[in-house]
Amino acid sequence: MDKEVKKAYFDKLKDNIDRFGYQLTYVSAPIPFCYSTGIYLTHKIPEIIISSLPQGICADIADNYVEAFKTKMAIPLNEPLDFLTDKFAVYLIDVPVSNLKDYVLSSAKFYEEQPYKYLQAVYPDTNGNFPTETGYNYDQELMGYFIPKI
User: Fold this and answer.
1) pTM (2 decimals)?
2) How far apart are CA 147 and CA 145, in angstroms?
3) What is the spatial distance between Cα 44 and Cα 41, in angstroms, rounded to a whole number?
4) Structural domain count of the chain
5) CA–CA separation, 52 vs 66, rounded Å?
6) Per-residue pLDDT tens for 21-79?
7) Which residue range(s) make up the domain with 63?
8) Residue 68 vs residues 38, 54, 64, 75: alpha-carbon distances, Å
């Protein structure tokens, strides 16, 4: 990416954060993923990353996440949440930013030396099984540790 294209991209990123509070970046890769930039700055809650779901579902989960938690003190981790999408329950897990250095490039550039945090949305396969359950069959890549509360 040449300097002018890169500058235009980051200008647009900053504009979207100013206008909408954050930007979602969808990356088409062998295992696609979507991640936010700006949520931590704007709403003081962790950014979110979602692996292997279509862009529209990623946007729904991210939008609902921000709406649900932007005014709350605590975000429940490793617990099933049924309001982030109407399709299935979603768990939120903590992800060390160091695990994401090859993924969240826009966030790394945007925040530079400022601290920021990430959570990952973890969801079931088409049979309703989560990654720790027998028979789980989906290509979701886990960036953090998924230990659901029982």
Assistant:
1) 0.94
2) 6
3) 6
4) 1
5) 20
6) 999 999 999 999 999 999 999 999 999 999 999 999 999 999 999 999 999 879 999 99
7) 3-122
8) 16, 21, 6, 9
